[in-house]
Structure formats: structure tokens, C-alpha cells
Design goal:
The chain has 348 residues and is α/β, with parallel strands linked by helices. The chain is built from 10 helices and 10 strands.
Length: 348
């Protein structure tokens, strides 16, 4: 199996949060949510070929906890939703996404249901390609709600609870085929603070209910697109949004909290608010093509170790890297691994 001869580190194990660039023969390079370049059986085969390559490159670049790199999906939210009943992708409305930018989104027209597994076949294939621990990302309930127009439930909270039940079904099926870490992506947690407090964390816990696999929540400031960058420019010299969600998550049943760090304005000491949890620390910037040096990555990790125990720190990327040239993304993975190795050697 891929990477079986390379040791997996249990101290400071490295991982990626989300997407990797897709091969040009599968989708247009350096474009978020690009349409597929293949169809039918060729598309199915191409997705698995791309996934196999992503696994190989992660292992070759020293990534310990392997993911699919989102090679089999166009969008981290809607690819899951399009497999559910009750959502009409032909009936579209324009909504404000993350309270940041307008987007044309599908409409909830009836009760949402998971009629069949969504990612289980792909996760089974991922499990077959590597002996390393594997992680699979799902959209979180609040972020799913925020990426739709709801013409049926007329309640963000009620729809979120419906999605939480569906996500729990999918997460248990992923666990059953060997997924070690199930990650829920909740960028909305950095925006809708009252909802996070009132029902967001509770819905997230419902999505993770009863799982034996480790659970993670990823809360980032978004891809390096213009709308997100413009929003970040309004946040001032310190980004303190995590102050709202971290105390709630520290008391939650979620095992791992994933946060953005490298080249952001997030004060490192906010990690103290999730003391006792594992921390998936974003030490690679996904909004900048510049390749971090191993020393830069190591410096970020050393600063984090003032607030989190070494056996609870998981070096990672800030967010997904789909818009990058593939070689840039791969070099960033190498830098992440090399930086972690520097700090690991100092701790041993």
C-alpha cells in the first residue's frame, strides 16, 4: 500500500485540512469548483486515479494523516447536498454566503433526506490505498444551511438539525469503512456568533453523536478568494472571532479543533480557550503562493506549543489548496512536514 514503508509520526502528526489541486485532465487547474473535464465511467475512473495520486503525494511529502484531497468532489458543501433528496439544484436563488458575498444556490423544496451513502465508496477506496490513518471531511450543519435557500423549513435552526441527523448517518458509515478522523467544516462559526451559541455547537455535536472515530471541527477564514480577502481586511490587526466559539467547543464532545494561524492575525494565545482538546494548527497559508520555509513552519509550531501540549498538536494547512498550482501545493506540504520534523527533533 502507498506509503507503508515510510514511518507515521505519532508526535506532531501532519495532515491537510481540505482540498488539493486536481490534475488538469480531471478539472481546470487553479479554479475553485471547476466543472469536470470527463463524463460517465471515465469520470469515475479519473476521480479514483486522482485520489490515488493525492494519497501518493501526501505520503511522499511526509503527511502522516492522509485525506482524499477532495479529488472526487467539486465543492466541499454542495457535492454532499446534491446527493440528498429535498433540494432542487435547478431552482436557484441568490443568497448572502457567510454574510460576505452573493451566490446562486440551490433551494430546499421539501424534507431533506439521505437516500443512500454519499462518500462511502470513495472513502472505502481511500482506505484501500494506504496503511496510514485517514481523515474525511464533511460540511458542518450550519455551513450547509448557509449555502442554500430554504423555501421549506423557513428556519435555519430546524434545517440544521435535519442536516445534523443526515451527517451523523454518513459519518457512522464512513467510520464503518475505516475512517479514523471525521472532520466537520464550519467556516460559518466565524460569522454567526449568536447562532453558534444558540444551536450551532449543539447541532455539530448531534452530527458527531455516537462516533468512535475521532471528530474534528475546522473553522477557517476561507479560501484566498477576493471576497474573503476583502472581508479579512476589515477585521483589524487582531482576528478574535475564535473567542466566540472556542469556549463552547472546549466544553463540547468534539475531539479536535482546527484553526487558521499562518500569516493570519489570530492571536496564538486564543488556543488556551480550547485547553485539553487536540489542536489542528494551520501552519501553511493557502492565500499566498509563497512557499513557507521549514523554519517558518517550525516557528509557528513552537509558538503554539506555549499553549497546547505537544501530544495534542497536529500541524496542518490553514484551509484547502485547490486554487494553487499543483507544484506549489506539494512544496507547501513538504515544508509542513520538514517544519514539523524540526520541532519533533527538539522535543525528542
Amino acid at each position: 500500500m502507498t506509503g507503508a514503508s515510510v514511518p507515521v509520526h505519532t508526535l506532531l502528526p501532519t495532515t491537510i485540512v481540505g482540498s488539493l489541486p486536481k490534475p488538469s485532465w480531471l478539472a481546470e487547474p487553479e479554479v475553485l469548483w471547476s466543472p469536470w473535464a470527463l463524463e460517465g465511467d471515465a469520470l469515475d475512473e479519473g476521480k479514483h486515479d486522482a485520489l490515488r495520486i493525492a494519497v501518493h503525494e501526501q505520503a511522499r511529502r511526509g503527511i502522516d494523516i492522509v485525506s482524499d484531497g477532495e479529488q472526487t468532489r467539486q465543492h466541499f458543501v454542495t457535492t454532499f447536498i446534491e446527493h440528498l433528496s429535498g433540494v432542487d439544484f435547478d431552482k436557484r436563488e441568490t443568497v448572502r454566503i457567510r454574510d460576505r458575498y452573493d451566490a446562486s444556490v440551490p433551494t430546499v423544496v421539501g424534507e431533506v433526506r439521505r437516500e443512500r451513502p454519499v462518500f462511502v465508496d470513495d472513502a472505502t477506496f481511500l482506505r484501500s490505498t494506504t496503511d496510514r490513518p485517514i481523515k474525511w471531511a464533511l460540511p458542518g450543519p450550519m455551513t450547509m444551511v448557509d449555502t442554500l435557500y430554504d423555501a421549506h423549513y423557513k428556519s435555519r435552526e430546524k434545517l440544521a438539525w435535519e442536516f445534523a441527523v443526515i451527517l451523523n448517518e454518513e459519518a457512522k458509515a464512513l467510520e464503518a469503512v475505516g475512517v479514523d478522523i471525521i472532520q466537520f467544516d464550519e467556516p460559518s462559526f466565524n460569522v454567526f456568533f449568536d447562532e453558534v451559541k444558540d444551536w450551532g455547537v449543539a447541532a455539530l455535536e448531534r452530527a458527531a453523536e455516537g462516533l468512535r472515530a475521532e471528530t474534528a471541527v475546522h473553522i477557517c477564514y476561507g479560501y484566498g478568494i477576493t471576497a474573503n480577502n476583502d472581508w479579512k481586511a476589515t477585521l483589524g490587526s487582531q482576528w478574535r472571532q475564535y473567542e466566540e466559539s472556542f469556549p463552547l467547543l472546549q466544553r463540547s464532545s468534539i475531539d479536535i479543533v482546527s484553526l487558521e494561524c499562518q500569516h493570519s492575525h489570530v492571536p496564538m494565545d486564543l488556543i488556551e480557550l480550547i485547553r485539553g482538546k487536540k489542536v489542528m494548527l494551520g501552519a501553511i497559508d493557502v492565500a499566498n503562493d509563497a512557499i513557507e520555509t521549514p523554519d517558518e513552519v517550525a516557528g509557528t509550531l513552537r509558538r503554539a506549543l506555549a499553549f497546547v501540549d505537544a501530544d495534542k498538536l497536529i500541524p496542518s494547512t490553514n484551509c484547502g489548496m485547490a486554487p494553487f498550482p499543483r507544484e506549489v501545493a506539494l512544496q507547501k506540504l513538504s515544508a509542513l512536514s520538514a517544519g514539523a520534523a524540526l520541532v519533533r527533533s527538539e522535543l525528542s
